[in-house]
Specification:
The chain has helices at 4-16, 20-34, 144-150, and strands at 37-38, 43-44, 49-50, 58-59, 64-65, 70-71, 76-78, 88-89, 93-95, 100-102, 106-107, 111-113, 118-119, 127-130, 135-139. The chain is an alpha/beta fold and 160 residues long.
Length: 160
C-alpha cells in the first residue's frame, strides 16, 4: 500500500544529497495524493509510518520523531507561535487520529496518545494520554505494541 512515508524518505534522501528536482516532485506528489505536508527536513526514525497512508498530516520541518512511531491520519506536529518551539517525539509511540502536538514539548518513549488529543505539555515515558489539553490517563508497564495487540473490542466498539 502507498504511504506518505515513502515520499518523505525519498525527499529526505534527495535533500541530503542535494537533488532539488526529485525533492520538489516528491513534496508536490505527497501534497496532491495524500493532502499532507511532511517536510523532508524533519527527522523521522526507522520503521515509523503514517496510518491510512498519511492522509491530512502536517509535520513541521524541524520536528524530530523517533523510531517505530505510528502517526494517525489528520495529525499535526508543529511549533507554537515561538519559532524555536519544536516538538520531539520518542520511540515506540502510537499517535491516534486527529492529534495536535504543539510547541516545545517532549513526548516520551512507549506512549499512546488517544484520538483528538491536544498535546501541549511534556508527556512522560510509558503513558497513555488523552483529552484536550492532553492529560496522563494511565501509566503502562508493558509495550504499547503488546497493549494494542491485546485489546479486544466489544460489539459496540468499546474496549473490554
Amino acid at each position: 500500500m502507498m504511504n506518505a512515508i515513502i515520499f518523505y524518505r525519498l525527499g529526505h534522501a534527495c535533500y541530503k544529497k542535494r537533488i532539488p528536482l526529485i525533492l520538489m516532485i516528491s513534496k508536490i506528489f505527497m501534497f496532491l495524493v495524500f493532502n499532507s505536508v511532511i517536510l523532508y527536513t524533519a527527522e523521522i526514525g526507522k520503521q515509523s509510518k503514517f496510518a491510512y497512508g498519511g492522509i491530512g498530516c502536517v509535520v513541521h520541518s524541524r520536528a524530530v520523531i523517533g523510531e517505530r512511531v505510528i502517526i494517525g491520519q489528520y495529525t499535526t506536529i508543529r511549533r507554537s507561535l515561538d519559532p524555536g518551539d519544536i516538538p520531539t517525539i520518542g520511540n515506540d509511540v502510537y499517535i491516534s487520529a486527529d492529534e495536535r502536538i504543539i510547541g516545545n514539548i517532549n513526548v516520551g518513549n512507549n506512549v499512546l496518545i488517544g484520538a483528538n488529543a491536544v498535546v501541549n505539555k511534556d508527556v512522560p515515558d510509558n503513558s497513555i494520554v488523552a483529552d484536550a489539553p492532553a492529560i496522563v490517563v494511565k501509566t503502562i508497564y508493558t509495550s504499547v505494541w503488546d497493549l494494542l495487540k491485546n485489546i479486544e473490542w466489544e460489539k459496540n466498539g468499546t474496549v473490554k
